[in-house]
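for the writeup, i need someone to sanity check this before i put it in the appendix. the sequnce is what the collaborator sent (i think, or maybe the updated version? ugh). structure was predicted straight from it, no edits. if anything looks off just tell me and ill rerun, i have time this weekend
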Amino acid sequence: MQGLRDNPQCALEEYARLRDLSDPGLSASPAFDPEHNPATKAILSGKRPRIAILREQGVNGQMEMAAAFDRAGFAAVDVTMSDLAERRHDLAEFSGFVACGGFSFGDVLGAGQGWAKSILFQGHLRDMFEAFFHRDNAFALGVCNGCQMMAALKDLIPGAQHWPKFANNHSGQFESRVVMVEVLESESVLFEGMTGSRLPVVVAHGEGRAVFSGSDIALMPDDVAQASLRFVDNYGNATDQYPFNPNGSDHGITGLSAARGRVTIMMPHPERNFRTVTNSWHPSDWGEHGPWLRLFQNAREFVS
């Protein structure tokens, strides 16, 4: 039935997974000590840098994202695109911004494309975002729908010329799963000290397949300033196989960075997993927080 309804190749690959009786299942192997907080000194200063939790019509991940940055020592500020368009806020006020996940404009204008066009086609917004991306002391993160949107802004972001576009999942279905990812060596300030970690994380998207042009994908595997996160199977191997790679992205690439690591985009949702209790599976020795909190702590350390 799945083969008739969805992509038949994906159905066969998922069936093969079920037949693999040696599959070890999910695991967690952080390459750092999750109990260590690199932002401790910055937090003890008492300062809470302001971060814009950016959303557009249809975005729905702002609460979890605000909670994650709040836990890491930021003052999270709810900022809508209309706030920026009508000049109630300006990105220059903030140490960072995050474009949240969801379904901007219901995805009817293409995954994140309508959101991006609302920036590109309004002169003062385009100038505001471009100026922010060039700031040496500020960072930006795009997750899921925000990842799609920021990928469409790559002409404004230094060093993002090889970033992909995002297209429909190969499965033909919206994919909401817990999958394994590996943190790659990159310049991303958010993944500082996390290289080599293999961790479970939530994905929830219908158009998450990273599509590179021929020249861009040829450069990607050797460009450590770009690829920062990839899907792996339960054995820890980079994979194109469904459902370990839930969208069919080439080389399993699902996170990238640019602007000397100050701008990071990714399809998975680390903000949904930073507390242990929100993980459907976790090792028994995890405390209040899971390893994904480190990404947000790294952001706090960066702006200290």
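The radius of gyration is 18 Å. The longest helix spans residues 8-19.
thx in advance!!
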